[in-house]
Amino acid sequence: MRCLALIAFLAGPAFADVPVVEAVTVNGSNVSVTLSHPDTGWDHYADGWEVLDADGNSLGIRELAHPHVNEQPFTRSLSGVDIPAGTTTIFVRARCNVDGWSETLFEVDLTQ
Fold first, then answer.
1. Which residue, 4, 12, 88, 95, has most beta carbons within 10 Å?
2. Is the pLDDT score of 39 beyond 60?
3. Mapped to the 3 state alphabet, what secondary structure does the chain carry?
């Protein structure tokens, strides 16, 4: 019986591949984010990322207008991000057009 349960589990649908924030650089109000995601084309691709403050407030969203099937990981920038004076930490999360926003936040220490 245990063997059947294991086979049923293994035969079930695979967990979705959410986009992963690999790196973030901040230069004044310019934020560059490197993402990886197994884009398959227009049907499933990383379509954005967002900069958040420590309270979860959005400081900026970068929309990605097309798949990056043959460019993984890839880096895109967003200028004009208003990071309030005295902010020591921001967070970045990624989104794909199938699974929505990733629950994983990438922490960026601005004091270094």
1. 95
2. yes
3. CHHHHHHHHHHCCCCCCCCEEEEEEEECCEEEEEEECCCCECCECEEEEEEECCCCCEEEEEECCCCCCCCCCEEEEECCCCCCCCCCEEEEEEEECCCEECCCCEEEECCC
